Amino acid sequence: MREVRTRYAPSPTGHLHIGGARTALFSYLWARKKGGSFVVRIEDTDVERNLADAEQKQLEALKWLGIDWDESVDVGGPHAPYRSMERLQIYQEHLQKLVAAGHAYPCYCSQEELEREREQQLAEGKAPKYSGRCRHLTPEERQAFEQAGRKPSIRFRVPDGRVITVQDEVRGEVRFETEGIGDFILQRPDGRPTYNFAVVVDDALMEITHVVRGEEHISNTPRQILLYEALGFEAPVFAHASLILNAEGKKMSKRDESIIQFIDQYRELGYLPEAIINFLVLLGWAPEGEKAEEEIFSRDELIQLFSLERVSKAPAVFDAAKLKWMNNHYIKESSTERITELAIPHLAEAGRIGEQPLGEEKEWVTRLVGLYQEQLDYVAQVVELTEMFFRKEVAYSDDAGEILSQEQVPIVVEALIRQLESTEEELTADTVKQLLKAVQKETGYKGKQLFMPVRAAVTGEVHGPDLRETISLLGKETVLARLESFLRRQA
Ligand code: GLU
Hints:
This protein is mainly alpha-helical. It contains 20 helices and eleven strands. 46% of the residues lie in helices and 9% in strands. Monomer. It is an enzyme of class 6 (ligase).
């Protein structure tokens, strides 16, 4: 049996998008499951749309996700080069073969002529399609065009009256009549190949066995199958993954602002790569049998469980709340040190801490992040959640204000101030526990009557993480200042 070879073939026209990442992931998982090879090829022939940093950003984002490749522009491989624009000579050779065999011909129509033809067809209520005007030019007519300085594009001669059947792993049998397919362009007048031509030459020469990509490419597939035939190549297996819909059930567009679209944006916000992978794989795939109900999968499990047959043709809905839930799950499972490393740039950017906290400051930040780790849907939230640690004046919420109006509050607060002032010890969570016990003994207030006012006066909130650790992290000076300020405001 042939080695399984899959590929992800981004055009460097943008950064790695959720849809592209899912395609890459499915291709990658299939190759890894089968012990095959995964290729990343850069399809950069659409030169007007290429962005200077897109190739690098795509590769970086894939690497960050942990999707590694065996062959590509950076590591090379037996089928190099892996950038289309460096393969022009190869396309040229195959184009010549097609022309020589009569499968392709030069077309001298100008843009204006094609546009006029299109408008006329539309006016007649017909689906627009290239008429085939240049199919039957005589050598003399061609020469005349050449002499007039026209540069031809090269078109594929689509055979008449055939039905092309795509055996799609996901969609089953999909049929297309060649009647609806006009002779399409293989090479533009400037010598660059079109996507449909380059992709076939590349997939064939790179010995790709499974082409996994988004549903939007299904209508390109019959054209590609015709090219495989004409070039005498064996076609790969095709698998077209379903569309991704937004919460309103509409096809997700790159301009949709209701969804964060790019992998590097998720990375910046402090989503973890394993959460993104776990989330993406379930956009249109589910495991078989008893695993079907489960939602959390490690990469190794996915490599074991993944199969193209289980990719669904029903559209997948992008559920941002589910992604947050999953990310929270992985954040909770991570070490506090890891989450702290991710949190530091956010806290530093907000001016809360230095850019590279060391020693005691680092320790303090680690404890602070640890205090909120369970609550984080994504790491950037740490800035907002820890806000009250960095305020000079406490801002009391309405609920806190209500608690603080209870009559025992000044008694409790004064007692706590005395306890704090009289202790020499460093304020660890344990010492705080002792101090609060002493306050309880002294005032006779306990439970909610004791802890709620202390929390409200010190943090301005009625809910929050562990109170002792919070007080310990705030430190004696800050806590005293806040308690005293509360009393002053009362007076
Ligand atoms: N460069 C194409 C794209 O980005 C690849 C399509 C394919 O996988 O064949 O959509």
